[in-house]
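User: Show me a protein chain along with its predicted structure.
Assistant: Here is one chain, sequence first, then structure tokens.
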Amino acid sequence: MSTVRNGPLVGLIVQFLLLAGLAGTVGLGVAGWLAGLAYAGVLCGLLRRGLRAAGADRLGPADRVTLARALLVGGVLALVVDGGPAPVAVLVPLTAVALALDAVDGQVARRTGTVSALGARFDMEVDSFLLLVLSVHLAPSVGVWVLVIGGMRYAFVAASWPLPWMGGTLPPRFWRKVVAAAQGVVLAVAASGLLPPVATASLVAGALALLVESFGRDVAWLWRHRPAAPATRPVPAVEVVPAAAAPPAATALPALGLRPAATAPPAPPVPVAVRIVAHQPA
């Protein structure tokens, strides 16, 4: 079995074992099982495709840490989708471990010299999906507006389709990483139920404000550095000017029944001169 297939397949097996553990401890209904398995299938399929596109034959050390995080997120998804009240004693620890490992995979990549575009994209997608799942979980208690936190990154990507300049490469910015990490911590605290409802809503609203500021700064930077529109080359306008007027041709008078004595010779061709009048844009 190829190593490209082996890594994602191991992840699929581990995801099944995690779901089985949740089902045997806190209980997991059909909806939770279906959501968890569907998530694992899509995750491993996309990961395998990404490995082939990157020309990698196996997961790197940091990618394995990110895969572990992704599988924990699959467990959180199963608990949220299951429909019943997700047990805080299981949901919050799974989320906390997934967030803690977010600080590990980057260090592992740098220390082992395995930093890659695939690893960075993999890490970002796992973070984004965890925020989306937690936002959906908190929406009934905090308010529908909390979904903006989970959907912000996906709206940003969708906006780059009609606006190609938004798909540009952003420069590294430490504050962006701080804001992204703060979102997960705040949503995990809100999911724990340790704070009063007013304090929870205020905390989440503050996190949302930071996120809007961070995305707004990125959009402004992309707008200022968008590619300039290609200049339009002027096309000269050509005017045809007759050099001399042709003599009027002889005409018959059919209405009077008259016929000319001799057929007039054809008029000579009129010479023309071409001159460039002005440069006009195409």
